[in-house]
Amino acid sequence: MFRILRLPFQVKTFNLQNLSPKPLSIVPRRFFTSDDDERGFLQTPLCNVRNIGVMAHIDAGKTTTTERMLLYSGKVRNVGEVHDGNTVMDYLPQERERGITITSAVTSFLWKSTSNESNCVLNLIDTPGHVDFTMEVERSLRVLDGGITVIDAVAGVQAQTMTVWEQADRYEVPRIVFVNKMDRRGADMDSAISSIVNRLGVTPLPLQVPVGEEEGFKGMIDVVDMVYWSWADSLGKEWIKHPIWDVISGMPSELSDILSKDALSSAVEMREKMIDTLSLLNESFMEHVLDCQEDPSPKGDGIDSEKIRAAVREATLRRDVFPVLCGSSLKNRGVQPLLDAVVDFLPSPDDIQKSKPSPTEAFVFKVVRDPQRGALSFVRVYDGSLNVRSSYINARTGKHEKANKLLCISADDSVEVDEIPRGFLGAIVGMKHTKTADVLLSTDVKDGSSDLHKSLSIPQPVFFMSVEPESEASAPVLQSALDWLVREDPSVEVRTDPETGQLLLGGMGELHLEILKERLMSEYKLDVNFGKMRIAYKESASSSTTIRLEGDYALTPPGVDTATTLVNIPLELTFSPLPPDFGCAVVTRSAPTHKHPKGQEVVLSLHEDEAEKELVKRSVGVPSQPLPFPADITSALTKGIRDALLSGVKFGFPLVGVGVSLSVPEDGFEQDTKEHLYSGTKEVLQGSAVKAMRRAMEDIEFNVLEPIMNVEITTSEELVGDVLSDISRRRGTVRGVSEVGKQGVGSRRQVEADIPLEGLLGYSTALRSLTKGDASFSMAFKSYDVLPDDRVEQLRKELYGLL
User: Which long-range contacts (CB under 8 A, 24 or more apart) does 520-524 make?
Assistant: First the structure.
């Protein structure tokens, strides 16, 4: 099945029962894969498949770690470096130019754990670490079974680390933590583990003790097998595993000069804590530990490494613990044990979802425009299999679409295949109507429903800029390009400014919009005029308010075919605040029917999640009395009011966090209307409701909301005062100052603050100037908050050209 080249070395096996102070194994990895090998991956038993993602804060070494995985697995022959712009996974020109990951990239390779006799296929997604591209992380995690979170050994858990961790929690993804950059000045494993506990609020399970500090970092002690990992060459392609129980017992060994007493005692202590933690979580493992204590081994504690591995795996899959490993990817140390841990501890597709006879179900997690092939729809197959030239039903649209070609993807390369089986990732060529988060089903599914149809959490844009074509003739081409950008990236928003009529392009940050600008000009060859970047302000109701809405509606009297008459319909609307991420919702009760004698509760919002609808109903309240109108009038009025809530009346910003309870006053209705005898045209009624609602909203007080960012600034101790003063000038609030890395080394401090996005425009240049290049910062979106009155007036002058 697989074509493997082996060098003429004799590979010794690791036997824990025959411990020796001499190296037990030097394992060269020289695999490389052909197109046939890639197709062969799809035949791998699912128990030997791992669908994993690598996620991290920017500059934690995520892509560097991924590139080493490809090298040591034999996927590539030469390692790519981020600083050289030649990595496999960062293949876009914009990525290589900036040295950051912008889009998630997929690849597959073989790995064989030292404890697993079968070749395992790792389907890996390398995700961006920059906050502007958090949507790429979101949709990748939706289809992954496990993850690797990379953190910096000096900085520990950072702002974007917490963001991606929360995203992984949302999809219940088991994770391993890799503490990278152990060779850096100030690297501290204990401090990094403490940051996991304090900032992520989870239970880390350290499995390795680093040997050597900073530039002297040499390797690590694995406390599961009690062996010392070292590397025989500078590229890290050959590693050596030394048993250490004899060294711990005091027997003479060449390792005595390498492994300090502190390192050995730390390993014993870590192993004891690991065993205690696992014993509390696993009763059968506890019984094994007690048996070993009753019958002690002459070497070590006698606890079976395989039983430890099984207990770690079980606890990891339940997310009771998160194994922690360490290394330095740039220095080629620690990646092979990390790959072993992926195989040993992270789930297979069978662990997540047991096989059952069922029709095909596949989730589309990404759509990309390929200049030659058209739309590439990236999918994860959950049940059945996708077959080339077969048709599938889109559960959202109900339309049939054909899979013209199927691909196995490896970064920017691909191999055509006839089938993508359950548990694997791939891409479909040519689907015209499929979007991100769509579900594809077999044509023999009768009701077109699926348990997979769970919407992604799509972040809202925080920046907008106007986009105008150079000429009227290029307007359709620009619109088509913008449609593609939105289809590819759901965090991109295109809308029309209600005040100016300009076309607005929204994104997650300055860099995000900059990349979109470059793509419009380079990929789509468009000459486009871009306006000044603007912050994505929003509006929201300041408090609960009840108003009476009077409106004249053109209705057709009973017994009349075409003639209409104006009927005054007064309504009572109660405005209630909702969380800003809920948008706006209208809650009412429809007219009684035979099935619903008290009327049916109706929630009209942009959210389809039933749990969120229940929260809206509890927050807003459902009227006790139904609307006394026919279904078509009720529907038109409700939708018209909902449409009026799309934007505020103060500045025309999107209206969010507003719930409206729609009911009827006790007086004011004509008898014929109450008896459901009138009828009306949906479009006319809906338009009239919008106009009446907009007029009524002018008497309601709305707040302007601004985005607040969670900012982390790292600088030297003597510059902290200057940084804090600058934060205050930017209307920021300092949450704390802490020491990062090893205490007393370099005197680096980390300042955590909440700063309005407006105060962060051009902050990178300002901070560099303030600290003479000493400081660095990162930020992640936190929430929306009310804009102060003085800034509202300043904003009014800016928007209406009064400054």
Answer: 520/467, 520/478, 520/481, 520/485, 522/93, 523/371, 524/477, 524/481
Kindly report the CA angle at 367 between 60 and 449, in degrees rounded to 5? 115
Angle at 271 (CA atoms; ends 267, 277), nearest 5 degrees: 145
Alpha-helical runs (H) found in 493-544: 510-522
pTM: 0.81
Distance from C-alpha of 730 to C-alpha of 341, rounded to nearest angstrom: 45
Note the pLDDT of residue 11: 31
Mean per-residue pLDDT over the chain, rounded: 84
Q: Tokens in use for 686?
A: 């809906």
Per DSSP, the residues of 446-495 read SS---TT-----PPPPSEEEEEEESSGGGHHHHHHHHHHHHHH-TT-EEE
Buried b (16+ CB within 10 A) or exposed e, 201-227: ebebbbbbbbbbbbeebbbbbbbbbbb
User: What are 480-507's pLDDT values in tens digits?
Assistant: 999 999 999 989 999 887 767 788 999 9
Mean pLDDT for the stretch of residues 619-644: 81
Both structure tokens of 382? 């959950």
* DSSP per-residue codes, 159-207: HHHHHHHHHHHHTT--EEEEEE-TTSTT--HHHHHHHIIIII-S-EEE-
From residue 786, alpha-carbon distances to 538, 757, 780 in Å are: 9, 13, 18
Amino acid at 416: E
Strand partners, 747: none
User: Nearest-5° angle of CA 446, CA 145, CA 228?
Assistant: 165
CA atoms of 477 and 491, how far apart (whole Å) = 21
Element spanning 584, H or E: strand 584-589
| C-alpha triplet 715, 718, 720: angle, nearest 5° | 55
d(CA 260, CA 267): 11
> Which residue, chain included where needed, has tokens 């003085």?
790
pLDDT number for residue 217:
92
Enter the tokens of residue 46.
């699912």
Q: Which of 657, 588, 656 is nearest to 617 (CA)?
A: 588
- Residues in CB range of 597: below 8 A, 6 or more apart: none
> How far is residue 646's CA from residue 641's CA, in Å, rounded to a whole number?
9
Predicted pLDDT at 354: 67
Neighbours of 504 (CB within 10 A): 18
Q: Is the pLDDT confidence value at 104 over 70? A: yes
Tokens 């990390």 belong to which residue?
338
